[in-house]
Write a structure and sequence with these properties.
about 325 residues; rod-shaped; alpha+beta; 3 domains
């Protein structure tokens, strides 16, 4: 039977293209005379014979197979001898785009830490990106036995090892177990390298890996939030003052006149004391720099307002004007 018989022309193309499909194989069909190949944007077409790549066509467009494609496939014996051998050629269409996948831990990962003997239960989520980079390896490991391959297939393979990699890199790079986000980039970089090694033999490379957030148990998160609040405010006394102020402003401090009035009075006193301290601190530098200050009586020279001997008003004199008594 002639490879190109007197049959209707057919089209070699990626039928029902799916954006989440990594490759799709056109196979087990005879290419008819006058057939054409259609390559769309973001696709490569690989002609395969006996598991080997005979030609790769990357430029999008429409091509006549017998005049524009076959001349480039010189290693196919059937093509060399007038296309009469009846050989079938598989065409593998590959999606060349970079895929982005969201991931998240299904169960908490117990990270060893001295603070918690049983381990710190942590969840995490983020994204990773990948694309096909080695067609020979792809055909050898996957396309040789599959007619299609989905993003979900890659996701299932990678998430099966992700928990172990998270544990490995959090333990290695998580210097502060209660602030893992600060080291998220180092953790993500290490995981990306390990995942890339996992997919290397399949012709797929991991182009990016990101950790969007680490999630602690509610009680641990509450403790972290409270500790951060104390650090931000400075000390417990100020924390209580701010909490009281927030309570009054929001109307949460209630209970009639006694409670609210007492809270308001305490807040007012604290504010007045703080203002006095600020004023004193502002005056100190000027006094130290020799700036003029209000005159004050020398220490140890306090004078009475009235003479202790005769009772006459002294008016700041050193001796009593009535009896001559020394006053200072």
């Amino acid at each position: 039977m002639s490879f190109f018989g007197n049959q209707f022309a057919n089209v070699v193309e990626w039928e029902e293209f799916r954006d989440d499909m990594i490759f799709w194989k056109w196979s087990n069909r005879e290419i008819k005379k006058g057939s054409k190949l259609i390559i769309r944007h973001g696709q490569d077409a690989l002609f395969i014979h006996n598991g080997l790549i005979e030609g790769i066509f990357e430029k999008e467009g429409e091509y006549k197979i017998d005049s524009e494609i076959i001349p480039f496939l010189s290693t196919l014996k059937g093509f060399k001898f007038g296309f009469n051998s009846g050989m079938r050629v598989e065409v593998l269409f590959v999606n060349t785009k970079e895929f982005t996948v969201r991931w998240g831990t299904q169960n908490p990962i117990l990270i060893p830490t001295p603070q918690l003997p049983g381990g710190m239960p942590i969840r995490a989520n983020g994204t990773f990106m990948f694309k096909v980079n080695d067609y020979v390896a792809l055909i050898d490991k996957i396309a040789g036995i599959k007619n299609s391959y989905l993003v979900e297939d890659v996701k299932l393979r990678l998430t099966s090892v992700l928990d172990q990699l998270l544990m490995k890199w959090i333990s290695r790079e998580g210097k502060d177990m209660f602030n893992l986000q600060a080291n998220a980039s180092n953790i993500a970089r290490g995981i990306q390298e390990d995942l890339d090694m996992q997919m290397l033999d399949n012709g797929i490379t991991i182009t990016g890996f990101h950790v969007m957030s680490f999630n602690y148990p509610p009680e641990i998160q509450a403790m972290i939030t409270k500790t951060a609040s104390h650090e931000m405010i400075g000390n417990l006394q100020k924390y209580q003052q701010v909490s009281m102020t927030d309570g009054i402003a929001s109307g949460n401090v209630k209970g009639g006149g006694a409670a609210a009035d007492m809270a308001g009075m305490m807040m007012g006193m604290n504010m007045a004391n703080e203002m006095m301290r600020n004023m004193n601190n502002a005056q100190k530098p000027s006094a130290e720099n020799g700036s003029p200050s209000s005159p004050s009586a020398p220490s140890g020279t306090n004078k009475p307002n009235f003479c202790p001997n005769c009772g006459t008003k002294t008016e700041g004199a050193n001796f009593c004007s009535n009896c001559g008594q020394k006053l200072g």
